[in-house]
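Section 5.1 Outputs to date
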Amino acid sequence: MSRLVWCRLPVLGKAVLLFVGIGFAVQILGVIFNKKSPALERAGPPLPVSGDAPTSCSPRTQVMFLKTHKTASSTLLNMLYRFGDARNLSFALPVGYQLGYPRPFHARYVKGYRNCSGQTFSIMCNHMRFYQPEVQKIMPRDTFYFSILRDPASLAESAYSYYKNSCPAFQGSRAIDDFIADPWRYYLPRLPNSHYARNLMWFDFGLEGHGGEFSLPLARTGVATVERSFHLLLLAEHFDESLVLLRHALCWTLDDVVSFPLNSRSGEAKARLSPDQLRRLREWNALDWFLYSSFNQTFWERVEAFGRDRMARELEELRERRRELQGLCLSQGGIPVEGRKIRDRELQPFQYGQAKIMGYMLHPGLDASTRETCLRMVIPELQYKDLLDAKQFPKRDTGGRGAGGEQQGLAHPGTGREVGTDTQETMGKGEADSERNATLTGLAR
């Protein structure tokens, strides 16, 4: 306001303006001094600790899941796919099957993302190397972040089986026993794909130093970084307890989280390790072991807060519902079968490495509605991703074909989807080719 205008105001008018200005200043100061940190703004409601069901909250629909390798994460991916698919939520989908992995995540790896558009998505859950500043460009501020961990000894055994033909450290050794006996003989950290051989979870979380020696300051810094970024860390060894905690944290229904184990390996493909070999693998993956041990402690603290008796009741409800759905949906007594024995292309899991990836066969003669429900619980992740891609990015004038030229429905990954216009708009050609060829990622437990 100019000095001339101020001077011409009556005394009463000046007083009113003065009081308004003081009130506005007080409000501004209140916002400044009471403003929450971004982490607190993102955290949402606390984990419920009472009541038989999460009835006092609203379902969370903004979810980011860091899909770590060899941790039963494919089962969680299917759960998120089903939840978002049923509600027509938007997915931050990759151009291929991963979000730029193993490069640190960048927003341009998301199909359909336009820089500076302000566009956000509801669910992000495909493989990436976590880099939160770029994730926050994609996901809303109130997003719920979670991931899953596994004992690094059993994870390493699984990784060896799956990446035997692509990881240099595993290629150079005759068998896992040789690698465990002297990993430094085979491990060259600078070679491509070497990260699969050491501290793989540490790498997936985007933490530095995964290929070097353990130090306590480095380990503590990494754990603190993960703790600041994620609201909940699940444990593969206690998967059902994890589902119960996750269900209440997200305020979802029982059927939203009940799942069948997906992309598991056949029992004959799993090596039996001695206690000494398990110890050696934990020492070799010392950063992963520190990460796992730290969040193992906080996991059981959450279980205690939730209530042991209540957890026992809800575990039985979860397992009973899973048994009901197995009887309804699955043939072969609900037991997984080798992928080569599944004749339905929609249900054939992707095979890679030495592992034999298992899948499911549905009961014949299911009515259309029941078959649709059951089908979505057992669709391998590559086929389900193609289905969501075609739904979210429909193509016109394709003669009944979906996104990327695939037949509408559950496209088989072996068809080799071509890189199209959407790819070129979000990634360079070299990155797009690399992304498309990266289907050899960890898709099995």
